[in-house]
């Protein structure tokens, strides 16, 4: 919009101020309605951050369609009375088992029957070669005993070697495979001393999500409330953990953080406006205009994104802190003109015409930095970008329509009749004086900071990505919630109880895929992250008929006379080997229900899946190790059948961090290039372009230096701070150097004094929006707030201190130092000649030529 076009627009706006305010109220009412619906539809599941076409999301969808359950509620029971707590667990589990199938799809708390089943048939799990060796040993042993009993052996003095066979070694070999199940006392999920017990409640696949999780947790909590746990033991404690509880806790923490951050930001921003502008009416006008922009943003966002995820949920605080910047610059200029004794309407007109070029560039730059995230495939970043882009657009529009219209309405209602008090600008005066007194020190500090940041860039690598999601959970969950109690569950099971699930289409594919994954496990040896590979065939031994034939032959070889010659220990071993149930074949349908349930699909079929358990090790938290673990499983699966579903939490995490690496580069480069092109197109002045660009480059470079020097991990949330810094960081430089461009004769320090205050206030509101996240419970929010605040400080320091210092130092070494006047005194202004100017509304007003 050209100079004269915007002048006509400002005249139109002032003449129709009441109509614009009324329109703003109507639009806000509709926006508020859809904003409520948008925030109600909050989805905190981590899979909501990935693109719908990501492999892990597609595979997860197939798992949900095929399996009865994909998540659990873990119930941890603590007591120093093992016997009493055991009875409590039995009674509690029996009540949970009566819950409707749409709420709970099964309960696990013991495997005593399963252990009994497999102990009775353990001989069938011995390899045929080992059975042949046992048979050969028994034959040799019988021959040896016969030889010893033969009198000729003594007469001939023959030395017959005694046969040896380490049956204990074979027993240990096969017992080790079942040790993870045999470790539980009495077959109950409990610690060795019985003081910690666990009940696992399966969430139906059809009920996956927040609603189903809450229904299950509430139903279990209701049963617990009905039971008098203290009658079993006075010290019984019951805690919830597991996937279901984690989802609920994170959702509740997120909602609390949203409410808290919004309230804190609103209060602090409002107080800052009042203290700076010293005008309640002006502050109200500013916040009212911002409110219209925010409600329009989320109202339109309801139709653009439909729901909020863990990334986009806190956009309210960010848009408040960032979107208010445009109104601050406009209102600050309005107040400045009023202090110059210009009429209210004239001041509005000047403020609109003088500030819109810089603020629209700043809004466009911030919008493009947010918009760069729209290029990301991840829904978390994409939604963030959509809301941020529309937010900057609507907040700027509201600032240059609703805000001045409200000011006009207040003026016509009798406000703004008095000239406001002169602003002290004490802070920006201090900065200007600091630049004058210590320019070399500031430039030296700037140079050192820049060199350190450049040197740190060599540390850029994939290890910057945070793969340990436990570090991004809510503080409450870590200290006293699900994550805290989940550590006790890990102590009991000593293994990963949420394995990666592979879903082939047939049992033949199951067999081949399991074999391929085991080959990878063997090839990698001790460095392998694969702890165990399971399929239904692991619970149904092969070659059963051949093994039974060998067992019967062994049984036939052990006559009564030989049996009585065995030691008690040997008899026990023989009894285990020749148990009655070991001489009968069994198949999938004969397995215990608990085992079948782990491999059963919704359609009733059993066995078309492979379970891969990773090791419980910190090594899995490294991004390259996690990616290797998931990629190796996918490679083995695709080798047999391309695009076989490989699903679970770990594949989702691996894909999420791969998206961060891919999308991060794309979004950051786009944001930088877009902002530079925007500055070039709108200013078309080499000096201003160089000034704004150099300030932005310094700010972003220092931010990377902070990340790398202090080993700050990049996660699925704080990555956004890098792209945002590219757009928001240029805002401050644009306003400073735009003022300098208009008033070159007054010098760069005058621009710092006059505009620096508004710029610092705008930065303060943005920092306040981010700073509220530092007090959040969710540690991902805290990490985002920390990086975003650092980005703010680096960009503000570069725009208001470093670059102005460089300009002032260079200019004062090119020509003699001439102190520029800070402005005319009141006495000087009184003696200025009066001139007649037309008021915007058509009447006449007198202004002084200042």
Helical amount: 55-70%
Average pLDDT over all residues: 83
Which stretches are low in confidence, meaning pLDDT under 50 for 5 or more residues running? 815-850
Q: What fraction of the residues are assigned to beta strands by DSSP?
A: 5-15%
| Tally of separate helices | 32
Radius of gyration: 37 Å
Q: Could you give the distance between the termini?
A: 27 Å
Structural class designation:
alpha+beta
- Main sheet specs: 4 strands, antiparallel
Shape verdict: elongated
Q: Give me the count of strands.
A: 10
Please give the structural blueprint.
Elements lengths: L2 H13 L1 H24 L14 H12 L2 E10 L3 H16 L9 E2 L3 H8 L8 H22 L1 H5 L11 H11 L1 H4 L13 E9 L5 H17 L10 E5 H36 L2 H25 L10 H25 L4 H28 L7 H21 L2 H11 L13 H12 L1 H18 L18 H6 L1 H12 L6 E4 L3 H18 L5 E5 L9 H14 L2 H6 L2 H10 L15 H7 L10 E5 L8 H18 L4 E3 L1 H35 L2 H24 L9 H24 L5 H27 L4 H36 L11 H5 L3 E5 L5 E5 L2
Antiparallel strand pairs: 1-3, 1-4, 2-3, 5-7, 5-8, 6-7, 9-10
Task: Explain what you see.
- By secondary structure, this protein is of the alpha+beta class.
- The chain has 32 helices and ten strands.
- The strands form three sheets. A four-stranded antiparallel β-sheet has the order 2-3-1-4, with helices on both faces.
- α27 (649-683) runs antiparallel to α28 and α30 (748-774) runs antiparallel to α31.
- The longest helix is centred in the first third of the chain and has 36 residues, at 242-277.
- It is elongated.
- The model is unreliable at 815-850 (pLDDT under 50).
